[in-house]
Amino acid sequence: MAKAETKMIKNARLSDPDRYYAQLPVWEARLRLWHWGNLFLILLLVLTYLLFDWHKELGLPKPTYVLVEKIHVYIGYAFVLLVLARLHLAFHGQPFSRWKDLDPRHDGKGFLAVMKEEIALHLRPKTDAGGLPIPDPDPGHNRLGRFLYLPLLVLLLPLQALSGILWASLKWGFYPLPFLHTLSPDTGKLAKAVISNIHAAGFYAILGFLALHLGGLVKYELTFASDLFSSMIHGKKILTRQAAREYEEITGEKI
Ligand code: HEM
After folding, report:
1. C-beta separation of 23 from 8 below 8 A
2. How many CA atoms within 13 Å lie on the side-chain side of 2?
3. 138, 229, 232, 236, best to mutate for ligand 1 pocket (most atoms within 8 Å of CB)
4. How many angstroms separate the alpha carbon of residue 35 from the centre of ligand 1?
5. Which single residue of 27, 140, 181, 182 could bond 101 by disulfide (Cβ 3.0 to 4.6 Å)?
6. Looking at ligand 1, which residue's alpha carbon is closest to its atom 4?
7. What is the pLDDT of residues 10-63, one digit of tens each?
8. pLDDT digits over 225-249, tens only?
9. Rounded (10°) CA dihedral 85, 89, 92, 93
């Protein structure tokens, strides 16, 4: 991360150094690209799914909705690549893209203890001398948000990608497992029912994640008057003095 970028930036939020101290690069470009690319693909997948699922209501002829179904599969392949790319970053990316920054546990405390602590911290934050709520001390992923990001990246997105691949192979004989299309009718029917139910449940779980994700971000912005939304665009976060100290420890950079 460029050293020049780590210097204090004079703007309204930083004018009170007791509250916000420095604006520092946190999200690497690959992570931001992944984030918005992933949102774009998910929106396309939802749109194509709704089109072929409601083909009767929309009066779409068979060749049209079958084409939309196949387009959904091709976008699904791109989604599989993105999921793999995010897992790659979790092992080999910069410090704030890695597993360590997605794990909510710290100081020997388990998941439940941290969750209780974080909910209290976000609902009833401590206030500073000026009566303003003190933002969380983590420079990277918000610690409460990690309870959503970790299962999303470890379980939900990979399961959705896998069930999509299996569904395409079973129904259309697509790669990577085209032979699944030639299973006996009974086995094929059962497998399709199981896989399509998993895929549909994953779809609703992702919508649930999105609602909690956006709700959490809005609540955070309203409570702490931070710059969380734009941080995923330009990559920098405005940090408290304590978060900036953590940043130095995590990155090994001197601010
Ligand atoms: C309009 C929609 C969205 C907006 C405005 C948005 C915004 C953001 C912001 C500001 C952060 C940083 C939060 C933090 O500091 O902890 C973030 C993180 C994240 N978001 Fe979103 N997001 C959106 C949609 C999505 C979708 C659809 C997904 C996946 C299904 C997603 C997955 C994630 C993940 C996994 C992170 C953590 C960063 C990482 O490790 O990859 N977001 N998002």
Report:
1. yes
2. 7
3. 232
4. 6
5. 140
6. 214
7. 355 666 666 778 899 999 999 999 999 999 999 999 999 999 999 999 999 999
8. 888 899 999 999 999 888 999 999 9
9. 140
Residue type, 144: L
Closest ligand 1 atom, residue 42 Cα:
27
Angstrom distance (rounded) from CA 74 to CA 216 = 32
Is 196 a pocket residue for ligand 1 (Cβ < 6 Å)?
Answer: no
Higher pLDDT, 9 or 111: 111
User: Where on the phi/psi map is residue 110: left (φ > 0), alpha (ψ -120 to 50), or beta?
Assistant: beta
* Average pLDDT rounded to a whole number, residues 169-177: 95
List phi, psi (to 5°) of 23: -105, 120
Lookup result for tokens 């970790």: 150
**What's the pLDDT at 2?**
43
Distance 209 CA to ligand 1 centre (A): 10
Residue 81: φ, ψ to 5°: -65, -40
55 is written with which tokens?
């083909």
For ligand 1, say whether the CB of 31 is within 6 Å of any of its atoms: yes
What is the CA(99)–ligand 1 centre distance, in A? 16
pTM of the model: 0.91
**Ligand 1 centroid to residue 204 C-alpha, Å:** 17
- Within 54-173, residue ranges assigned H as helices are 55-58, 62-92, 111-123, 146-151, 157-172
pLDDT tens for 118-164 read: 999 999 998 887 788 888 889 999 999 999 999 999 999 999 999 99
